[in-house]
Amino acid sequence: MADNLQEQLYQRIREALLAGRFQPGERMKIRDLAAAWGTSPMPVRAALQRLVAEGALEGEQQRSVRVPAMTRERFQQISLVRLSLEGLAVEQAAPRIGEAEIALLHGCIVRMEQALEQRDVQGYLKDNSQFHMTLYRACGNPILLRMIESLWLQVGPFFNRLFTEADLLLRLNDFHEDVLKALLAGDGRGARAAIEQDLSFFGQFLLNLLDLDSAARGLG
C-alpha cells in the first residue's frame, strides 16, 4: 500500500511539472504537499527524491527540494535536444496514430483555444502537455518517449513565462493546428516540421525573456 501511494504521488507531481504548475526556483514544501493530498510526509518525500534522481528537481540543504531555476545555457541545451527528439517522435507517430488519438488531439486544441480566450494559464498548460504527450506516445518507441518526458520535466515549469506577453497568446495554438492538419493528411514530415517550428518559435521567445532577466539583474 505504501509503495502504491508513493507511486501515485510521484505521478501527480510528475504530471504537475509536465503541465507547468510549479514555477522555476519554487521550493517544494513536503508538509504542504502532504496536507494538500491528505497523506503523511514520508511518501511525498520519497516521490520527490525520485524526481531529484531523475534531474527534474534539485535537492538542497536540510532535505528541502526545489524546481531548478532556468538559465540561458541550460535552456539552450535542453531545447537543442528537444528539437531533434520531438521532431523524430512526431514523424514516427504519423503513420501509427489512430482515430482515438486524433480525436484527443483535436479536443486539446479546442480546450487550449478556450483557455487562451479566458486567460486560463493552468488550463492551457494542462492541455498543451496532454497534446504533446499524446502525440509522442504514438511514436511506439518507449526509449524515445522516456527521453522526451525527462526533458519536459525539466523545462515544463518555465512554460508559464509564455503568458507574460499578451501578443504571444494569439500564436500559442497555431502550430498545434498545423501539426493536426499534417497528421490528417498523412504527412509525417509536415507534422515534424510543424512541431519543430513550434519549439523554435517559442523557444526563441523564452530565450529572449532569459536575456531580459539577466539584463535586469545586471542593472540591479
UniProtKB/TrEMBL annotation:
Gene3D superfamilies: GntR ligand-binding domain-like, Winged helix-like DNA-binding domain superfamily/Winged helix DNA-binding domain
Entry keyword set: DNA-binding, Transcription, Transcription regulation
Boundaries of every HTH gntR-type domain copy: 3-70
Keyword Ribonucleoprotein assigned: no
Domain of life: Bacteria
GO molecular function, one term: DNA-binding transcription factor activity
The UniProt record lists the keyword Transcription: yes
InterPro entries: GntR_C, TF_FadR/GntR_C, Tscrpt_reg_HTH_GntR, WH-like_DNA-bd_sf, WH_DNA-bd_sf
Entry protein name: GntR family transcriptional regulator
